[in-house]
Hints:
Layout: H1 23-32, E1 37-41, H2 42-50, E2 55-60, E3 63-64, E4 66-71, E5 86-89, H3 95-106, E6 115-118, H4 121-130, E7 135-139, H5 142-149, E8 152-157, H6 158-161, E9 168-173, H7 174-179, H8 181-198, H9 202-215, H10 221-229, E10 235-236, H11 244-257, H12 266-269, H13 273-277
Parallel strand pairs: 5-6, 5-7
Antiparallel strand pairs: 1-9, 2-9, 3-10, 4-7, 4-8
Helix pairs in contact: 4-5, 5-10, 9-10
Amino acid sequence: MTDYISRHTASGNLFIPRLFQGFPEIKEALISNTMQAGFMVAPMAMALWSQGVPIKIVYLGHRYGSAFVVRNNGPIKTFPDLRGRVVAIPTRFSDERLIVFRALKKYGMTAKDIRMVEMPPPDVAGALAAGAIDAFSMGEPYPAQAEMGGYGRILFKARDLWPDYMSCVLVVRQDMIDKRPEAVQALVDGIARSGLWLEKGRPYREDAADFVGRFYYHQDPRLLRWALTNPLDRVMYTPLTPFKPDFELVRDLMLETGTLDHSIEFNEYVDIKFAEGAKSKTAWAYEPGGLEAR
């Protein structure tokens, strides 16, 4: 996110990453100002803004990277086979829930044909393996976890039903934007450069998986490598500029599925100037195994 190896930037800003296990905790941290910026799914960010939480979307975290997973060698061969079955989603305010609704519409089904349950993302792979759920719609690395474990199979990827699918967005509190715009720009610049660096090829993604897995969030580097390289476009880190049509599609789906009670306009909840400021940035000058990035 910043200079890849450390939490500092050349301008002297210090960014302290914090791992959350669920989206409700992210929401509370932003409201209480114990966190000033964070990644969350786009529908939740839009819903929070519509409810008066003082945040703005300033960038994307990545594109694609979500999938619908069923038990390997189980009875679910096609989406209509899910009638009467249990499907886990991370939260009702998620793109992964909207993916399910797009699939339901495609196959002439309604939400009454399945039972959707909200479940913290870290729990879904185990629940699928134990037979507590029949499927889940979730972002990485949880589809990869089910695949690696041999008990999960991707029925379809988000991009199969949603070609320009975007998942996580970067939100920043409005008071940070007003008081420290240079820090917000430094953060967006770092994310942009990291995304371009990851898109340079397999060795870069494998190195990132190893470093982040071991030193930041104590995740299995093998799992992160799977999620980042199997295949290489499983998760994409360009383009990360917020595009109005993408968000209007999410807004319309939220209105249709009952998670937004009134229409909101793109320029009200998105501040595009930081993405515009990052357009000239280039990938970090860092090779796998190095000690610093420039």
